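ok posting inputs for the thymidine-5'-diphosphate job
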Amino acid sequence: MNNSSPVLVTGGAGFIGSNFVLDWLSAVGSPLVNLDKITYAGNLQNLVAAETYSGYSFERGDICDAGLLHRILNHYAPGAVVHLAAESHVDRSLLGPGDFVQTNVQGTFCLLECVRAYLERLSPARRAEFRFIHVSTDEVYGTLSPGDPPFTESTAYAPNSPYAASKASSDFLVRSYVHSYGFPAITTNCSNNYGPFQFPEKLLPLMIANAVAGKPLPVYGDGRQVRDWLYVGDHCAALRLVLDRGRVGETYNIGGRNEQTNLDTVRLLCALLDELLPESPHKPHEGLIQFVADRPGHDRRYAIDAAKIERELGWRPAETFATGLRRTVEWYLANRDWMEQVMSGAYQHWIDRNYAARGAANQ
Ligand code: NAD
Ligand code: TYD
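and the output
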């Protein structure tokens, strides 16, 4: 893309989005427009530092609103889109899948249509430089057994949750636009991210918040499900590389080569909290672990083969799980006011819905 044109980021007030916006402004520094609806998961407080950059603009709105998208595209004339806006939590998709179809499928479709119309108005030179990065998930590939090789870009799609199915649908729409219209899209499928600004409904921030408060740490099922953890800063660096040098029409898997069972992850976290909070009355934090009823249809294992992005774009994660987890825990401990403000009344209502019915499980 041409660096004088802004990049349009959707969902830039969410977890990965706000990390991407801050990373972009400090590492690249060229203009960026953030379009976000500010759902329960969006938080403008994450972006206070972005407001100091003259090239940063924020627009509040919905990716399902075609009129708004046309106005934003015409007004800012972006040279690229990084599409992160989504409903992103599996447990919420099990309790209410409608929002996932609306934003992830209908919203992506609306965005694709508006960008397609916008591209037709660009000069051939600007159109040739334009890129649309569609950020997706490894969950579209379904689940792995213990001995299976990790997901590659050619693994067949087999989504198991409404969230994964809605993301898979959006990936297929993007793919079809590349093939049908020569639309300049690249799709990335990443593994579980962790790091600053993650909404505390996801495993790591939820466990940190509960442990600090001396509340139970609810591990689903037997806790032996495996996730492949990717530090969010490494993901942002990968997205910048894909935008800069990725091949149009390709997909890239992004993962940390860092498979952990949930139980090991929670135990590591507890050990770090014991070390960083030596005066805590809740030590040893591991004593707070409680096994609860499993997630319905819980995928057993995700693992990413990131060889393609490593080979083609020279990307490597900078953080190991040990260094990334320490940075993450330190960030949450240093930003307890952020955590307290995010955990609003509405969020407490969600916690009641998700966990009340689970009770304690026999392991
Ligand atoms: P998030 O839930 O933290 O943030 C989503 C953001 O999108 C929020 O700011 C929200 O306000 C915004 N949004 C939601 N609906 C919108 C709409 N209709 N219009 C405009 N904005 C809207 O999600 P995240 O964890 O930052 O994930 C970002 C992207 O990365 C998603 O597409 C997700 O599927 C993908 N992804 C995330 C992970 C992960 O571990 N977090 C892993 C793989 C893929
Ligand atoms: P999550 O952060 O929701 O991400 P995803 O479902 O996209 O992988 O969950 C990560 C793993 O942690 C997943 O296997 C479910 C498990 N988990 C728990 O055991 N307890 C919890 O309270 C939560 C939120 C997740």
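notes: The mean pLDDT is 95. The CA atoms of residues 74 and 344 lie 36 Å apart.
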